[in-house]
């Protein structure tokens, strides 16, 4: 092929027109992709595996998985108990979500850029990212030292992350509020609380509902985890007992199925709510 | 319906919803024996306790190399689990998304598999795998891998379907093969968004790795659990501070990368 003569205003390389443009974004992306690739390839060699017999572990796992998922059964607990424990897990998640949502609402109103001064917003945002940086299970265990293991530590620990998450979500939807509405209310002599009650809540209520339910869905998962890791009760604790105390794989399978069904139901409701209120999937 | 009637109806609905919510809250509190007053009272008590006890001492800094080693293990685990899960999730998302699905049957199957993986909680994976793999780093890896995979398939499918399908249509019309259509039409549009989800998962996995570590005896979670049970609060403080530093660092990196590529 003959090389094209160089044209003005057209990027050329080796006598060919360059279709792709090298922007900062593509370069950064390439670097990031290569870094991730390198870490993925090298990473496994940096870990200490100790002694493991791959063939045995894999066949054992497959056998175990078969026992769990194809022959689930209740042995130590009954179906009724399992339902009761799922109820407790849902209740823990519900408490953390509701308490968290109420607190987040006020924090969000104080941290939305259009409603509050910048310094207050910055303090709230900074403390939220501090709260988010500590894993939930650490919060629960730290609360457990003072409040004792159980519902209080579990709900408070989950509530902190709920607050950090929902404050950000609520504040973002508050910030989408029409500037004109606020101005009109201000001009007619409304105070800050009037603005929040009569402009902010009505306009962002559908966002609030979908975000809150989405968080409830997440909190259910977290509550299962906290039951297992921090002995907070609920279905997670039964799962922990079945697997680490009784080594009863059939029961582990059954409990997993129960937890799974509830999780899928919650996800379906959450998608419905999102579609109903926000008009998208 | 007149304006007043509408407002009155709205007021009633609101009142009923609030009554139901309060009833549910009371019911939940009774079921779990949660006491709101005690709960709220223990927040300031805990904060005061944290500032007086969770302070690393000189003695705890002697264990710093050990903690850093475990922390490194956790970070690598979170990254490797996220990237490998992302590769698998990309394949499933291609099958599951409306724009790129090969046929309906594969589409529904891929979405169903992802949904099952996503909704089995990460602790369930950890507890299931710990039986066969033992207290081993692979247990943590697979637990994180499975849950990340499920989540990323959902997010990747949403990303692909939200991106415009015009390019795909144009490529298909001009006779491009499926492979060309995906590589030249779908990937360039969606890669930045997908990458930002992968970063989000790396962040999340650092936190989940701590949780999984407590259950499977690996990484930083294991150390935290060990010192927690020994009531060595100075060490707990050191570990907590290190985790915060790492999470902040990863959040900062991912935010700057996200800003650069979008």
UniProtKB/TrEMBL annotation, chain A:
It is found in: Cell membrane. Its main location: membrane. It is a multi-pass membrane protein. Residues 86-273 form the ABC transmembrane type-1 domain. CDD domains: TM_PBP2. It holds the Pfam family BPD_transp_1. GO terms for biological process: transmembrane transport. Keywords: Cell membrane, Membrane, Transmembrane, Transmembrane helix, Transport. InterPro entries: MetI-like, MetI-like_sf. The chain crosses the membrane at residues 27-47, 86-110, 137-160, 222-246, 252-271. GO terms for cellular component: plasma membrane. Belongs to the binding-protein-dependent transport system permease family. PANTHER family: ABC TRANSPORT SYSTEM PERMEASE PROTEIN P69, PHOSPHONATES TRANSPORT SYSTEM PERMEASE PROTEIN. This is Phosphonate ABC transporter permease. It comes from Caryophanon tenue.
TrEMBL record, chain B:
It comes from the Bacteria. One of its GO terms (cellular component) is plasma membrane. Pfam families: BPD_transp_1 (PF00528). The chain crosses the membrane at residues 12-34, 40-59, 71-92, 209-227, 233-252. It is found in: Cell membrane. One of its GO terms (biological process) is transmembrane transport. This is Phosphonate ABC transporter permease. Belongs to the binding-protein-dependent transport system permease family. Signal peptide: none annotated. Keywords: Cell membrane, Membrane, Transmembrane, Transmembrane helix, Transport. It is a multi-pass membrane protein. Residues 71-254 form the ABC transmembrane type-1 domain.
């Amino acid at each position: 092929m003959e090389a094209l003569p160089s044209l003005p205003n057209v990027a050329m390389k080796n006598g060919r027109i360059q279709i792709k443009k090298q922007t900062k974004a593509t370069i950064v992306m390439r670097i990031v992709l290569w870094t991730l690739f390198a870490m993925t390839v090298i990473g496994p060699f940096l870990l200490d595996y100790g002694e493991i017999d791959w063939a045995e572990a894999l066949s054992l796992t497959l056998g175990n998985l078969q026992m769990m998922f194809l022959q689930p059964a209740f042995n130590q607990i009954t179906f009724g108990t399992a339902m009761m424990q799922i109820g407790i897990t849902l209740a823990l998640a519900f408490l953390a979500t509701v308490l968290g949502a109420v607190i987040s609402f006020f924090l969000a109103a104080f941290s939305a850029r259009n409603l509050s001064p910048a310094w207050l917003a910055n303090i709230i945002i900074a403390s939220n990212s501090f709260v988010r940086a500590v894993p939930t299970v650490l919060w629960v265990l730290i609360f457990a030292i003072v409040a004792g293991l159980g519902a209080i530590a579990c709900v408070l620990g989950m509530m902190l992350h709920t607050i950090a998450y929902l404050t950000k979500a609520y504040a973002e939807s508050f910030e989408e509020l029409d500037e004109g509405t606020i101005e009109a209310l201000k001009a007619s002599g409304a105070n800050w609380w009037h603005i929040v009650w009569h402009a902010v809540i009505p306009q962002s209520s559908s966002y609030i509902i979908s975000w809150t339910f989405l968080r409830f869905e997440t909190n259910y998962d977290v509550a299962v985890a906290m039951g297992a890791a921090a002995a907070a009760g609920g279905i997670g604790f039964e799962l922990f007992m079945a697997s680490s105390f009784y080594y009863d794989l059939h029961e582990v399978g059954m409990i997993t199925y129960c937890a799974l069904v509830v999780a899928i139901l919650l996800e379906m409701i959450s998608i419905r709510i999102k579609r109903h209120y926000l008009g998208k999937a | 319906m007149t304006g007043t009637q509408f407002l009155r109806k709205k007021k009633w609905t609101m009142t009923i919803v609030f009554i139901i919510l309060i009833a549910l809250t009371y019911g939940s509190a009774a079921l779990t024996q949660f006491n709101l007053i005690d709960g709220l009272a223990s927040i300031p008590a805990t904060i005061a306790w944290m500032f007086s006890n969770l302070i690393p001492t000189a003695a705890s800094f002697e264990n710093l190399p050990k903690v850093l080693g475990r922390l490194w293990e956790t970070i690598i685990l979170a990254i490797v689990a996220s990237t490998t899960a992302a590769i698998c999730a990309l394949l499933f998302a291609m099958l599951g998304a409306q724009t790129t699905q090969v046929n309906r049957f594969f589409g529904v199957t891929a979405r169903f598999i992802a949904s099952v993986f996503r909704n089995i909680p990460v602790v369930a994976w950890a507890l299931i795998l710990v039986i066969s793999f033992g207290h081993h780093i692979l247990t943590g890896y697979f637990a994180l891998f499975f849950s990340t995979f499920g989540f990323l398939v959902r997010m990747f499918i949403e990303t692909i379907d939200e991106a415009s399908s015009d390019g795909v249509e144009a490529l298909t019309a001009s006779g491009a093969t499926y492979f060309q259509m995906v590589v030249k039409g779908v990937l360039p549009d969606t890669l930045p968004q997908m990458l930002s989800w992968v970063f989000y998962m790396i962040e999340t996995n650092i936190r989940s790795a701590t949780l999984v570590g407590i259950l499977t005896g690996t990484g930083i979670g294991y150390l935290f659990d060990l010192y927690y049970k020994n009531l060595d609060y100075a060490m707990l403080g050191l570990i907590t501070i290190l985790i915060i530093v790492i999470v902040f660092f990863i959040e900062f990196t991912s935010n700057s990368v996200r800003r650069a590529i979008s």
